[in-house]
Specification:
The complex is a heterodimer of chains A (682) and B (414). Chain A is α/β, with parallel strands linked by helices and 682 residues long. Chain A has 28 helices and 13 strands. In chain A, a hairpin with a 2-residue loop joins β8 and β9. The two termini of chain A are 36 Å apart. Chain A: It holds the Pfam family ORC3_N.
């Protein structure tokens, strides 16, 4: 308790040793940590890169809209109010992407003078003065020549005066069509509203001379403007809203592109529980793109903490680098391998199956089989994704034909979930029922949707084949043949054809989507989720604190054999704070510290009753010592509870009276037939 | 408690004020679900009507907010006393430090591979456990440790510490804090700057106790710099409100870990060991709070007679206290008048002083007590103690120290 030591201290590093961040098991592979690290970094970079690309394409249109809004904004003579483009994104990172794109677009046209202002530009204690200074210096350094820059700063006008900009603008742009000046407030919600009001007033004044435009970036909802700014400021802004796609669209696009796409070769696939974690955190706690990436990171990290992940990059592993047979035994104990061997159906690799059963471990052949398996796994994932894409395409086609049908509402999120859980059977069934009811034109339209893509994917091939046979049978000279009574009765040939079609597709979907596929060792390439991850991604600190206070035995029992996990601890063993808390939860809303102290005292005394009985005769001095110690322990416990936020002052007059801040219904679980902590004497 | 089933439906309702703990749907005050509690066969016969969580809530609300008026029986301890007492207190078991070791690799990976700041929560002092972890890192990185619970912490101090890690020359005190903040941010956003680890113990204490010294938002902006890896701990139950997810915008996408250690917060609480328990009886009319050490100083500095008089009064008071305790232990604190029951009538004290040749006159008696009165060690009142029968007007004199302090004052004063 050296209370007088300084609050900030620095420890220098001792050496430049590089420590490891990922585990390496003594029995797996030489340099296991490095192998894992490389694979992890590679996968992570690939996923991040792709996700950002998707985000860029998703928001491209928004940036185009914003640019056209700015370019078409009214001139100084036409409009007094400042033309303002309100960029609404539903999460923080979208606006940054949009602004970057906007900047790129503007570089091609040069029709706008732009300047972005973040919260930093207004100073750490945001003021209008530092804001104006940033605007002046920023614009001059960006668009004025060096000489001119210095001249304007040096001349009578100083850098904190907006007049400098006015003068510079008037001098520099004398032509008929001067460029517009666009100021972007990147962190609109983070800026103090009075300052924004002042800024708007200032800009309105200069709007008479300079065509100033504003861009306000808003992360929450457009209502933020109306909440933060008063009416007389709002009427000075001629606002046009440009909104980014909703958070759900972002999720569907990114997850769909990362894990359910046929164009992107994802380094890893999702298991159903991993998808659920992503889905839950996105829906229930953090609705942002950044957090989605963070969750993915955590899942990857979790994956590369597993022993089997050493085989993730199968090509990098050689027989010589494997240290021990235990690696193979570990692989053989993976659930997928066990169920694969048990099922005994047609094997992906008969040789491998034999090898596994014979337990001929650590051979070159086995490693080769593993490499082959990886290819098989990748191919199977590709096929699944291809079929899934076909299913989605079909469903969205049906939705466009029958928009009222509730069964075909586009909900990619739910379908992805169903796919990872293997619940697509019902959806496939419902979808294909509609195929057999299609008209000739509809079927043609649907199938020809595939014909453009000349890919080698199975779905495309199937569609092309069916389209050919459709054209053979039902078209003449490029037009669909219709029977005379086609309106009322269906062509029996066509009915037969659609049924075959539907059957073929059913077969295709069943093989690729519905039937469970078993590939041994698939855990190596599929992200599973350990139970801790959910706690990390969705933590509940409050729960952790309350549990530790109420059931210290659950924590201690793992380390001390004498403490039982299920029985309440005796007051000799339980931490003082837990004892004080025990009294606390039995108190009313407002209570007296002195009563709390007597309760605490009796809990402690009843715990040590037997041992003290022999020394009944005590000196007054000893008694004092004892009470001092009790008081010190109680003070410590109460201070701790206070610092955790369990009590607050309740009376101005009597400082001993405090109020509870945490209530819970706990009487029931502590009254465990006499094994609970000692009851408190009245 | 619920009475036995009867024809009268009213009897099925829980008795007033009592909450029937039937179903352990808990924590209606918090959003947590307590999965550790198992609502098993504890109640063999369930009544028909059981209180819902909302019933429990309203019942809690109906408990009258009338705490007892009793005063805390002892004066606050000094920091030194607390320290010695706690050092001698029995050691309670806590989660062994070794058991956190297996999580180091995970934490390191999160810090340096994912570049996420860690924030540790849970009950118990996390200082020792975090220091152990950081010691492991200090081989590779420079570490700056910030004790946020220390009231002397300043934002400037933190900035200077951060600059001092890589800068040998001292920073002139005339540099404004904003300038320092900018240079720290600049330095730690450069890719060439070696990464450092910033450890913040009890980070929530900044907002709770030292608001004037440190602006948490500014601190977050500094810590969010690229080349700083943050390891922080928080104690408060509602700390997530202070460090929300959108801190990611300033570069701090917190990763929460439960690190319940059950260790006592000895170091963290050392600063405020005596601040909570203030006995209101202690405040005297002069505004001076009498303490044992203060009394000793006064006793040492007064003339011999005055000292003897004070000791005599103190001993008398001690006797009266122990008598009072035997007859009625609770009476002394619950009385409505200000005069405590152990106060002695003035005439009795004067005659006692005369008999023992301490003060021969009333003036001498008053003169001897004057110094003590100035220091708030003697108080008097004309209203009699509640349990005393009075005949005429009389002044009552007492020493505003409790029995224990008085005894300790006398022990050393003699």
């Amino acid at each position: 308790m050296e209370s007088d030591r300084s609050a900030v201290s620095v420890t220098r590093r001792r050496n430049s040793a590089q420590s490891t961040y990922l585990p390496s098991f003594e029995w797996d592979v030489n340099g296991g940590c490095d192998g894992r690290l490389a694979a992890f970094q590679q996968s992570r970079q690939s996923l991040h890169h792709r996700a950002r690309q998707v985000m860029d394409t998703l928001l491209e249109g928004v940036a185009d809209n914003a640019l056209s809004v700015l370019q078409k904004s009214p001139d100084v003579n036409e409009e007094d109010a400042i033309p303002t483009c309100v960029l609404v994104s539903h999460e923080p990172s979208s606006n940054i992407v949009i602004l970057r794109r906007l900047d790129q677009l503007n570089q091609n046209t040069h029709s706008l003078l732009t300047l972005e202002l973040g919260w930093q530009d207004f100073g750490s204690n945001p003021t209008l003065q530092s804001g104006v200074k940033s605007i002046v210096l920023g614009l001059l350094s960006k668009y004025a020549d060096d000489d001119a820059h210095k001249r304007y700063i040096k001349s009578a006008l100083n850098s904190t005066d907006f007049n400098t900009i006015h003068k510079w603008y008037k001098d520099s742009y004398i032509q008929d069509n001067p460029p517009k000046l666009v100021l972007t407030l990147r962190d609109f919600e983070a800026l103090p509203p009075p300052m924004v009001q002042d800024l708007v007033s200032l800009l309105t004044h200069y709007r008479k001379y300079i065509p100033i435009n504003l861009v306000l970036c808003i992360d929450s909802s457009p209502a933020a403007i109306y909440r933060l700014l008063p009416r007389y400021t709002i009427i000075k802004l001629a606002m046009t809203q440009v909104a980014a796609p909703s958070a759900n669209t972002t999720f569907e696009a990114i997850i769909g592109e990362l894990f359910f796409s046929t164009t992107y070769n994802s380094p890893i696939t999702l298991s159903s529980s991993a998808f659920d974690v992503l889905y839950d955190t996105f829906n229930h706690s953090h609705n942002s793109f950044e957090h989605l990436l963070h969750t993915l990171d955590m899942q990857l990290l979790d994956h590369f903490f597993q022993p089997y992940s050493i085989f993730f990059d199968t090509d990098a592993v050689s027989v010589e680098s494997i240290k021990d047979d235990r690696v193979w035994r570990y692989l053989l104990s993976l659930p997928s391998t066990i169920s694969y061997l048990k099922q005994g159906r047609e094997a992906v690799d008969r040789k491998l199956c034999n090898e596994l059963l014979a337990e001929k471990v650590n051979s070159e052949g086995l490693l080769k089989s593993l490499r082959r398996l990886r290819k098989v796994f990748k191919q199977s994932v590709d096929e699944e994704n291809d079929a899934f894409r076909a299913l989605q395409h079909l469903r969205s086609f049906i939705h466009s034909v029958v928009p009222d049908s509730k069964d075909f509402l586009p909900n990619a999120k739910a379908q992805m979930q169903a796919k990872t859980h293997g619940d697509l059977a019902k959806i496939v069934d419902k979808t294909l029922q509609s195929v057999s009811l299609m008209s000739k034109a509809q079927l043609y339209e649907w199938l020809s949707g595939y014909a453009d893509t000349k890919s080698s994917m199975k779905s495309d091939q199937l569609a092309t084949k069916q389209l050919m046979s459709f054209m053979d049978k039902f078209t003449a000279h490029g037009e669909i043949k219709l029977n005379t009574n086609e309106q009322s009765t269906r062509d029996p040939d066509f009915v037969e054809f659609t049924q075959t079609c539907a059957e073929e597709w059913t077969q295709h979907f069943i093989v690729n989507l519905v039937e469970e596929r078993l590939i041994p060792f698939e855990e190596i390439w599929r992200v599973g989720v350990s139970s801790d991850l959910q706690m990390l991604v969705n933590p509940s600190p409050r729960h952790a604190i309350l549990t530790a206070l109420r059931y210290p035995q659950k924590l201690l029992g793992q380390h001390y054999p004498e403490i039982s996990l299920d029985e309440a601890m005796s007051s000799d063993n339980a931490p003082d704070t837990c004892l004080a808390f025990k009294c606390y939860i039995e108190a009313a809303r407002v209570f007296n510290l002195s009563d709390w102290f007597s309760a605490f005292k009796s809990v402690l005394e009843s715990g040590s009753d037997q041992s003290k009985k022999s020394k009944k005769r005590k000196k007054a001095g000893d008694e004092d010592e004892e009470t001092i110690q009790l008081q010190a322990r109680f003070t410590q416990a109460v201070n701790e509870l206070d610092s955790m936020g369990f009590v607050k002052k309740a009376s101005a007059r009597n400082r001993n009276i405090v109020a509870r801040t945490v209530f819970m219904h706990v009487e029931g679980d502590d009254d465990e037939k006499g094994v609970g902590m000692e009851t408190i004497a009245e | 408690m619920v009475k036995e089933r009867n024809t009268n439906i009213m009897q099925l309702l829980p008795d007033d004020g009592k909450i029937q703990p039937i179903n352990s749907e808990d924590d209606w005050g918090s959003e947590d679900n307590e999965d550790l509690t198992n609502s098993t066969d504890a109640t063999p016969s369930k009544p028909i009507i059981t209180p819902t969580t909302s019933d429990v809530y309203f019942q809690y609300q109906n408990i009258p907010a009338r705490p007892s008026n009793s005063l805390f029986p002892y004066p606050p301890l000094t920091a030194k006393e607390t320290r010695t007492a706690l050092e001698n207190a029995p050691q309670k078991p806590c989660v062994p430090r070794q058991s956190h070791k297996r999580r180091y690799l995970q934490w390191k990976a999160e810090l340096f591979l994912l570049h996420r700041p860690l924030i540790f929560t849970g009950f118990g002092s996390k200082r020792g456990a975090i220091d152990d972890f950081v010691r492991e890192l200090s081989g590779e990185y420079d570490v700056i440790t910030i004790d946020a619970f220390n009231p002397s912490i300043t934002f400037r101090g933190v900035l200077e510490g951060l600059l001092a890690v890589h800068q040998k020359s001292s920073i002139p005190s005339s540099t404004p804090t904003d300038e320092l903040m900018r240079s720290v941010q600049l330095q730690y956003s450069r890719a060439s700057t070696p990464r450092i680890v910033a450890v913040l113990h009890s980070m929530d204490a900044l907002t709770l106790h030292a608001r004037k010294n440190v602006d948490v938002d500014k601190l977050k902006r500094v810590l969010g710099s690229e080349r700083i890896s943050v390891v922080a701990s928080v104690d408060h139950l509602n700390a997530p409100l202070l460090f929300p997810a959108h801190d990611a915008a300033v570069g701090l996408p917190w990763l929460w870990h439960d690190l319940s250690t059950l260790e006592p917060h000895l170091m963290e609480m050392a600063q405020r060991a005596t601040s909570l328990l203030h006995s209101s009886q202690a405040a005297s009319s002069t505004g001076i709070v009498p303490t044992v050490s203060g009394a000793r100083h006064v006793i040492a500095s007064v003339p011999d007679r005055a000292r003897r008089l004070f000791v005599a009064i103190a001993q008398l008071q001690l006797e009266r206290c122990s008598e009072g305790e035997k007859s009625d232990a609770t009476a002394q604190n619950t009385s409505t008048t200000l005069t405590p029951s152990h106060a002695s009538p003035r005439h009795a004290l004067v005659s006692m002083a005369k008999q023992s040749f301490i003060a021969t006159s009333e003036d001498a008696f008053e003169a001897a007590l004057a110094e003590f009165r100035d220091h708030g060690l003697i108080q008097s009142s004309s209203s009699p103690p509640s349990n005393t029968h009075v005949d005429g007007p009389e002044q009552y004199i007492w020493i505003p120290l409790d029995q224990r302090s008085l005894r300790r004052t006398l022990e050393d004063g003699d």
